[in-house]
Fold this sequence. Notes:
The chain is α/β, with parallel strands linked by helices. It is built from five helices and eight strands.
Amino acid sequence: MNAMYPCLWFDGHAKAAAEFYCTIFPNSKITSDSGMVVNFELNGYSFMGLNGGNNFQFNEAVSFVIPCKDQEEIDHYWNSLTADGGKESMCGWCKDKFGLSWQVVPAILGELMSQPGKGQRVVQAFMKMKKFDIEALKNA
C-alpha cells in the first residue's frame, strides 16, 4: 500500500468507477468493497472510492496525469476515458464518464518543449489539439 493515496468522492458509483478504471489501466484490481468504500489499485497505485452522495462534484482543480510512451498508449487512454459519456477538452485534458479529469500526455513533452528554438512551436501546436498527436509535436 502507498503511504498516501487519493480518496475519490462518487455519487453512489464508486464500484462502477473502480471497475471501469481497472479495465483501462494495467496491473489493476479492486482490493476491497464495503459498499460505502471501494479500495482499488491502478497500475500498482492505491485509490479509494467513496460513495459519498451528491454533495461534491469533480472539477479540473484535480486531475491525474498519464505520461504515455507512444501514440498507441495516448490513443488507448484517451479513447477509453472519453468513451460512454466522457468529454474531450483541449491540450490533452479529458473527463471520464464519472467527471474525473485526466491529462493524457506524451512522456517526451517536456523534452520537446525544452529544445532550443522549438519549445514555443510545440506549445502553439498542442494549444490547437484535443488529443495529443506526438508526430505533429515532433514536427512543430
